[in-house]
């Protein structure tokens, strides 16, 4: 696992304005945010928020990771205090199923933006549907990632057996390199729009996205309404038409026992930073108070709930 650490400082702006210390005299040596691969939006979002939060108080370490499953495990065991995760991995974590041996003690600060599943092939590839992956070499996402979770569910819904293809467990950066070199025929990626690494790939090697809209309802029937229909707009990654796919919300997650004032401070800063973060991470512009509270099946942290109640218009 590649580990990147970016030292920044936390501004405890919300509670200072209210005349209190959110840490109540027990500031940690650092605040750790676990994100994703360095070519994806989780990591860019975490770094950008860290940059905005830099002034005083507590150093923040921004870590890259394999993705949602690893992030949830890190937050639950205390390796990290905040993490990004897709809703499907969260559902498994709170139920103690799939990659999780027992329910994890987690809460959400916000629904931040939605992921869209990318099934990426070269422009001249004969692959036109997910069923065409049979007999080909395909990257299914990094181990313990949300991409791997959703890729297997999509293949299952499409009736493509794992033995029917040569599956590789590659992160986004490795998947991009492998498609460019011809080592894989396709790769899955679940991420926001637009994903920087795929954007750069499309500039150097024409690619297209394989439509997945026809199997969304099957995936929803099997795995729940956290999944929805999504559309990648025309022009994204050089496409000449919009592409129907599957979408899933992303949450910012903390342990359930995080002190309420700290959780409230973090949510306040997240919203205060939205415009500045969106300059480098366009997905941050989708952060919205009216939608941020919808984090089912994960409960909102009481400190976050306090913020939303006080700022309700």
Automatic annotation (TrEMBL):
It comes from the Bacteria. Pfam families: NMT1_3. InterPro entries: TRAP_TAXI. NCBIfam families: TRAP_TAXI (TIGR02122). This is C4-dicarboxylate ABC transporter substrate-binding protein. It comes from Isoptericola cucumis.
